[in-house]
Amino acid sequence: MNWIKSHSRYTDTFEFIACQSEERKSRFPEISDEACLDVLYLVTSDGRILAGDESLPEILCNLRYFRWLVIFFKVPVIRLLSYRVYRWIANNRYIISQTVLPLTREKV
Description:
Elements: H1 2-7, H2 22-27, H3 33-38, E1 41-43, E2 49-51, H4 55-61, H5 76-91, H6 93-100
Antiparallel strand pairs: 1-2
């Protein structure tokens, strides 16, 4: 999440709320705890709720230097593959974060 924040076009583009927090439960009661822990949810400024791979194009639109990647999501084959790629990343997120974290300049 820090990577997304650090590459966003504007400082207030993204707000991250922990799935198990009371704030998330009160602001977005339609997203269950189980669903929230399973996939990434993006709530847009106009109130749309995008889950999992549906959120990726919207996130990319708001990142510096990565906006151009959105055009790939318009290709039908890429849209079909994005779900599988998203699920693989989501299922392996803890291993990936342990691998990527040392490559970042952030201190935890």
